[in-house]
Design brief:
Layout (H helix, E strand, L loop, with lengths): L3 E2 L2 E2 L1 H26 L11 E2 L9 E2 L4 H26 L2
Parallel strand pairs: 3-4
Antiparallel strand pairs: 1-2
């Protein structure tokens, strides 16, 4: 509850109250949107970007920033695994 002291609102209490109300309203609004939206079959995605790794769906090579980050990460992981294999071959 918000306290008033000589017409001043305690900011922390007000902020907590507003934050709690906002989170509740946002949750309910998102839930209602998710629950009620129906997408026609002809509007659905036909292919996903490769970085989503959707099994059983067609994909395309994305050149967006997420696609580039994914590609660089894959390269680094592959290079690290190759380095690990070389280290294992050299050790007795």
């Amino acid at each position: 509850m918000v306290r008033y002291t000589k017409a001043k609102v305690h900011f922390t209490e007000l902020f907590s109250f507003v934050t709690a109300c906002s989170a509740s309203i946002l949750f309910h609004a998102m839930f209602m949107l998710i629950k009620q939206v129906k997408v026609d079959r002809d509007l659905r995605v036909e292919a996903y970007p490769h970085f989503m790794e959707k099994k059983g769906f067609e994909s395309y090579h994305s050149t967006s920033i997420l696609g580039r980050i994914y590609d660089e990460t894959e390269k680094a992981i592959l290079q690290q695994s190759e380095n690990d294999k070389q280290i294992r071959k050299l050790s007795f």
